[in-house]
Amino acid sequence: MITVVVVIHLLVAMAMIGLILLQKSEGNSAGAGFSGSGNISSMMQPRARPNPLSRATVFFGIAFFATSIGLSLLSKQTAPAPTLLAPDASTATPVSTGPAPKVNDLREPAAAEPAAGAPASTPAPTSTGATPPAAAPATPPAAPQVPVN
pTM, whole model, 2 decimals? Predict the structure, then answer.
């Protein structure tokens, strides 16, 4: 059914293009009404009687509009369209129901929770609101070994 409507839609579109190109412009110069170069008095004159070409163009315009609406109604899906933003449930990772992670938790690997009486491992914010940088490790990392041939 959709294939038939698409073929009709394309035929109507090509016929409409041909009819529009065959028509004579009102001012005998293309775009005279839009460029400002045309005669202003020609815009105030009554329009000429519609000829068979203009009537056929109106008919094909209405047919094009109708086939466009028909195609949109025929192609309407009953299920929601797949999207890249929301993966399907089979590949989705489970969502944690705990509290949202803090900024420092995202930068550092997760550490064991401190005991109930132990101080927090994250330094308290300073008066400016920024946390001080982490302390440097006590021993420098070992130099990489270079193989000798």
Answer: 0.43
User: What is the distance between the alpha carbons of residues 82 and 12, in angstroms, rounded to a whole number?
Assistant: 32
Please name which of 49, 42, 50, 44 lies closest in space to residue 26, comparing C-alpha atoms.
42
In whole angstroms, what is the distance from residue 88 CA to residue 117 CA? Answer: 44
The string of pLDDT tens digits covering residues 77-107 is 666 666 777 565 555 566 667 777 666 666 5
CA angle 25, 30, 36 (to 5 degrees): 110
Distance in angstroms (rounded) separating the CA atoms of residues 67 and 54: 20
- Residue 37 corresponds to which tokens in the numbers above? 């170069």
Give long-range contacts, CB 8 A cutoff, 24+ apart: 50-57.
Answer: 53/19, 53/22, 53/23, 54/23, 56/19, 57/16, 57/19, 57/20, 57/23
Q: Residue 107 in contact with residue 38, Cβ under 8 Å?
A: no
